[in-house]
Hints:
Blueprint: H1 2-22, H2 56-65, E1 70-76, H3 81-90, H4 94-103, E2 104-110, E3 116-118, E4 124-126, H5 127-133, E5 141-146
Parallel strand pairs: 1-2
Antiparallel strand pairs: 1-5, 3-4
Amino acid sequence: MALLLNMRKLLPAVICTLAAVSLARADGEKESVLFDDSEVVTKELPSWFKASFLDLQEDLAEAVEGGKQGLMLVFDTEGCAYCKAFLKHTLNDPMIQADVRANFDVVSLDMFSDVEVIDFSGRTLPAKEFSTDEGATVSPTVVFYGADGAVLF
């Protein structure tokens, strides 16, 4: 229980810090990152993201059965340059990736989709409605859920 409480407090700070560090070169110089959000991009998820039928109760149960603390849900959308940058510069960082993969299964959800999602309470609703209910109004938004389906951070 103490580990879970410490994770609640520390993981967001660790991920943000590691994201900033991942943009730095080994020699300590800042990497110049050119960012062009005018390009239409396609969503290419890492192979370690969970293939999901968007039954979040089932996804969470599988994560917990696999020894994970919960589920990390990435609310994104097709064509999102910021989502692509998040995947490339943050979740591609070996330290961040190792920490996330050790503690959470990861599911991607297109926040503007009409595809049906079964939420943690068993309610079936469109992904765009679930995203709004969860406070995901921009992409990417990342939400961590604990073993009980409650938002950790």
